[in-house]
Design a protein that fits this description.
Layout lengths: L7 E9 L6 H11 L7 E7 L6 H11 L3 E5 L6 H11 L2 E6 L11 H7 L5 E5 L7 H18 L11 E4 H4 L12 H7 L4 E5 L19 H16 L10
Parallel strand pairs: 1-2, 1-4, 2-3, 5-7
Antiparallel strand pairs: 4-6, 5-6
Helix pairs in contact: 5-8
């Protein structure tokens, strides 16, 4: 194995903002789901300026579980920043993104990672959403608008559960809100992407960090930015000299 090849098989990236009740359960489920993974795995948990006991719980798990690594922000910077911080620290050949709220099912992670044997990225599709109707409606409208505007055929860009080959994910520069469009952004880097239907569960503890208000203006502006990047990216081919 070349020296620059990561020795770990999988890095799990978990942004966490006020998820003290969920994190111990999530880490236990991830450990169970990946217990058979050869070459090992790590869980990188980013505390995004939590005001509850999230940081203390991460520190305690880091001290007692060798596969847990904590990253601690000095304030609340948002999910895109948390994902980016985790991605830059990932040591696995495959990098998996997952929410901390237990709505994503860690049992789906092995199927996403297995798909990387053929594809550069595997993105989750919550075909059976377990959210309030208002959240499902706004998400459906957002996905329809995005597909119409960008030509991206991904059904569920809002699903955080995604797996990527580390080298392709490292090429992407994230901006605020852009984690929603990672499938599109890696495709722009030449990556092959497959959708995988995943389980979706009701939230057990805590409250959603999103509402109909912060799912409208911000994502719309982000969509316009992605449209601009797709249309303005450089496209050229060299010709052979006769």
């Amino acid at each position: 194995m070349p020296e620059d090849t990561p020795k770990l098989a999988v890095s799990i990236i978990v942004p966490a903002y006020n998820e003290a009740e969920n994190l111990p359960i999530l880490v236990g489920e991830i450990e169970q789901a990946l217990s058979a993974v050869e070459d090992g795995f790590e869980i990188v948990i980013i505390d995004d300026g939590s005001t509850d006991a999230t940081a203390e719980i991460i520190a305690d798990m880091q001290a007692h579980r060798s596969f847990v690594r904590g990253v601690f922000f000095d304030g609340n910077y948002g999910q895109s920043s948390a994902f980016d911080a985790g991605i830059r620290r990932a040591r696995g050949r495959a990098v998996v993104l997952i929410d901390a709220d237990l709505q994503n099912d860690p049992a789906d992670i092995p199927r996403l990672v297995d798909a990387l044997g053929e594809y550069d990225a595997a993105v989750g599709w919550r075909a059976d959403r377990r959210d309030p109707w208002t959240k499902r409606l706004t998400s459906r409208f957002a996905n329809f608008t995005r597909r119409l505007a960008t030509g991206d055929r991904t059904h569920d860009t809002g699903c955080s559960l995604k797996a990527f080959r580390r080298e392709i994910l490292r090429r992407v520069k994230l901006f605020h809100g852009m984690h929603r469009f990672l499938a599109t952004l890696v495709e722009m880097e030449g990556a092959s992407v497959v959708e995988v239907k995943v389980n979706h569960r009701p939230r057990r503890f805590g409250r959603s960090k999103y509402s109909i208000f912060n799912r409208s203006l911000g994502p719309t502006l982000d969509l316009l930015a992605v449209m601009w990047m797709r249309r303005r990216r450089l496209r050229y081919r060299l010709r052979e000299r006769g």
